[in-house]
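Notes to self after the call with IL:
- keep both proteins in one doc
- input above output, always
- annotate only the second one for now

Protein 1:
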Amino acid sequence: MNRWRSLGIIAVAGALVLTGCGRGDGGGGGEAAAGATIDDKPASGDITVWAMGNEGEVLDALAADFEKENPGAKVTVTAVPWESAHDRIATAIAGGQTPDVSMLGTTWVGEFASTGALEPTPKGLVDEKSFFDGSWDTAVVGGTAYGVPWYVDTRVLYYRSDFAAAAGLEAPTTWEELKTFAAAMKQQGATSGLSLMPGGFDSWQYVTPFAWQAGGDILSDDGKTFVLDSPEWRRAFEYYNSFFAEGLSEPVRLEGGEIEQKFISGEVGAFFSGPFHVSLLREQGGEDFADKFAVAEVPGDATRTSFTGGGNLAVFEDSENRDAAWKFVRWLSEPDTQVKWYDISTDLPSVQKAWQDPTFADDPYLSVFGEQLKDSKAPPAIPTWAQVSSVIDSELEKVTRGSQPVGDALSGIQSQAKTIGTGK
């Protein structure tokens, strides 16, 4: 299951009654007042950590380095499947059985912060300016940071560079050029010049960047009102739908595994995705395919804003080893640690300085993601976003299937979002 899909699945999961894992018996900081600054002394005691998916499977390898630098500390990592993670955390909060630290999907922070279970990030723990703006914003709720970004993902444009060369085109930079580019991909033999989600689950992640690029947003400037029926959203929906109406995008959902094969075969000329697809395409396409595809920053309108996701790290108010937990989080946010983490997990660094390492700066693919992260954005950290985004998913599908005009769809989205509310 790819990272984008897994984050969305969990964000809409309901609460299940699952057994929460208890914390270790170590002390060394639990008595500190919430919000107190964290000193530079070595960490000590037991630190329990929950991490999801691949991160949970490989974090032990990195934690071993932290234990060498902090001989009095013991990090115990519990790998939690993405499918049950949201509900397991919710159940642990309700039962007062949270770990010290947990990885959180970026769209969960608002929900869990609203319960009072997350401790605000201690003042001076990290420099928020060292992170990408869009990434740092995923940890902020109501002007207060709860945790820090751990790793980031963003989307760029993957395209068949051999098709583009044959058509005499460079990577598109504007909406107009993207439309021309998609048509050229079809002329080169692709059945879908640009693969887009036609609606349904998680399609909001594909259409929302177009609204941002047009100058729109999800909430008003004061963060109190949804603005999902604005002229900018209308323009984004109409432009997005035009790819289906003009036959440049097939109205078919391509799940994990399908998009790679269709791109390699030439049935898909271009698509938007995260960094994980670089290695997948190299592996599945074979040695020669590396010269047949490239990546570029997303084309844009007023801006070239892309979607950003990833994983954050938060410490719970009930942590029994609060100081050591934050010290572990701080250590994971250091540039050198983040470079090591990429080598282990292939997760992209959330700290900008880490991108100066040749691992990223000299790589023709990864360097593009680094540039795109300078203009990337996440949805607002509100508890109700999972409900609101599912409305966008369903209404967009009605538009691309031709069963509802754009204006009616946006009116429906705005009306339902207003009823749902922001949860603040």
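Protein 2 (the one to annotate):
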Amino acid sequence: MHNALYAQAGGITSVINASAAGVIETLRSYGQTPRIYAAINGIEGLLDEKLVDLTNISETTLERLKRLPGGAFQACRFDLDTIENRPDQYERLLQIFSHYDIGTFFYNGGNGSMLTAQKVADYCQSKGYPLRCIGVAKTIDNDLALSHCSPGFGSAAKFLASHFLQATLDVQSMSASSTKFFVMEAMGRNVGWLALSAGLVKDVIADLPLIILPAERAFDESAFLARVTDLINSHGYCVCMASEGLRDANGKSLAVAREEHANGKVYTQYGGVAQKLAQQVEHALNIKTHSANPDYLQRSSALCVSATDWQMAYEAGAAAVHAAHKGEHGILPLVQKTQDTPFRWHFENFALADVAELEARVPDHFLTADGMDITEQALEYLRPLVKGERDMKWHDGLPDLRPITWTQVEKKLPDFKK
């Protein structure tokens, strides 16, 4: 029997380590994998031969792993070059796999990470190396195509809705003499799934003066300001949730934090749309406004983990191992809803090539005609994904989230220049 290797990639989620635990425990349950390794820092760490041996990981450490947010094995943002430009990268990976007798590679990531996994699968297959390459789904953006939802999204949505509710109560209580408009920014450079989470607050405050601005709809400043004015006139205040990737009718982003040039590509970091919208309202209506950008908080909060999402993330790891055990290769298990009430799902395998770099956008029927609110169908979709809570252990007044220290295996191969 051959060994297994697990790695994390891309932006993390508050439940990605549950998927890691799902992989480890399910591999153990089959009892057919001599050694279980994890790469530190994803595919980049794999190229560097930064590996941890998890074969004898203790139950205590596993339980800690299940509760930790962030990437316990350090997720990377690193893209393999094309095989034409850097064949040595692929040769190096094959060298690592061969040296450590890796028979199955589990890559835990989103759309872009699945493209990397596909590249690795194709190359190893072309060289006749018996590697099973299996994706493990995750992304807070909820944009994995062909999936009902993405592990990681439910907890991020729960965080945003919970904190948006609390901020709304603050604004509501102060609006007579202070802030009348509040806007929060949600991650989502091309999709507005997370922005939709604010709609859940309507289950608590029925007549909520709310505006939601998802990335799928072009921003119209005049219509937006008119809607803000109407809501403030009728309710005394207005609250708003906007996607960080909001664009106008010409496709121009409302706010870009910075652009980085690396590996011949331009990487755009979005941020600041909430502040921009608050300024527009303040200048147009001459009222006090506030804005908030939770940024990393929405994807790293262990205090707002959805029990449904945690279970889904764990099962994503387990499903990947089940697929490998059946001899599957080059696939990604994705969530398929099987029942509405109570909410039930199972995982179905899809080819990496069918998922890689595809993007699931918010459907039109989830948005109102003016594009500034969500429909009951959207709420029905969101509600089950944020349900349930996980108990949190505390230590000296803070969440007991001490990071796990891993001991890397001794390197045996020459250094590699990435």
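Annotation: Residues 3-139+146-151+303-358+389-399 form a domain with the Rossmann fold fold (CATH 3.40.50.450). The chain has a mean pLDDT of 94.
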